[in-house]
Amino acid sequence: MRSDGAVVCDRGMTITLGGPGADGLPKTVGVLREWQHEGAPTQLHPGDLGWFWRSGAAATAAAVRTWTRAGRVLAIGLLDGPGLLRLAIAPGAHRDEELARRLADDITRPERGVLPEGRASVEAPAGALVHEPLSAHGWGTDEPWTPLHRDLGEPVSDSVNEPVGGPVDGPGLRIEVVGPERAHAFTAVHRAAFDGSAFTAEHWHTMAAAPPFADARCLLAHDDRAGPVAAVTVWSAGPGRPGLLEPMGVHREHRHRGHGRAITLAAAAALRDLGSSSALVCTPSANTAAVATYASAGFRRRPETRDRYRNA
């Protein structure tokens, strides 16, 4: 290893830790799109960067890390909060020994600028070799998450035999595709669905102006009597690739009425219309209500995953 921390590979190449900068973010999103394919492990999705972008391009660029070798991006990380790194790894590089050692070294050493000292977590693809050196560095496993998947080659329906009427209709609710003039209504439902949310119309406009949103839709579900009751954002990674639901929430005053299932069906239908091959979502396994909601909308559970964590 050189004094600057770059790992020297047996092939005479180096793995370099860096970041894309604001100007390089669209290219990074494009790389993440290329890495999404059916059968891949659950990992960072371009929609995750799109959702983070509500804080602005500068903040998003500051939160992204890249690991490259010979000009090829091998891994992309998003600092999704002060102590959480979410990783995606290039196809064919999940078992790359040099990459795994470099990732673990950079993640473990705060001076490298990836994660700070103290309690921290890493969301890495299941089966990736990086889990082994992280474990050797003392990183344990955290609470389980449940990934869920729905094949969009199947009809998206509100019952066993009846297809959803129209591209984004759901049972019993009116589904609106949100445009700029309705950002205030969409963000109000989001704040009512997630405790501590500070999502504002200004944040929505920032997110909607970013490159990833060109392949995204925000949906708002209306009850004729109660008004807006649920919201979801869906992110396509391009035709023939898995799309993502991030986030989905039901207004706290209108839960336990099937609205979560309805907006999830609408989300799946919207992704189908965007050309996505499937719909993905991931939720803590302890949130049994969320797991049940997605399952009721035709999503199938995949094997649980666990983040790696380091105690303070």
From TrEMBL:
A Pfam cross-reference name: Acetyltransf_1
**Which GO molecular-function terms appear in the entry?**
acyltransferase activity, transferring groups other than amino-acyl groups
What positions belong to coiled-coil segments? none
Keyword list (alphabetical) reads: Plasmid, Transferase
- What superkingdom heads the lineage? Bacteria
Give residue ranges for domain N-acetyltransferase.
Answer: 173-312
Question: Which InterPro entries did the record assign?
Answer: Acyl_CoA_acyltransferase (IPR016181), GNAT_dom (IPR000182)
What's the protein called, per UniProt? Acetyltransferase
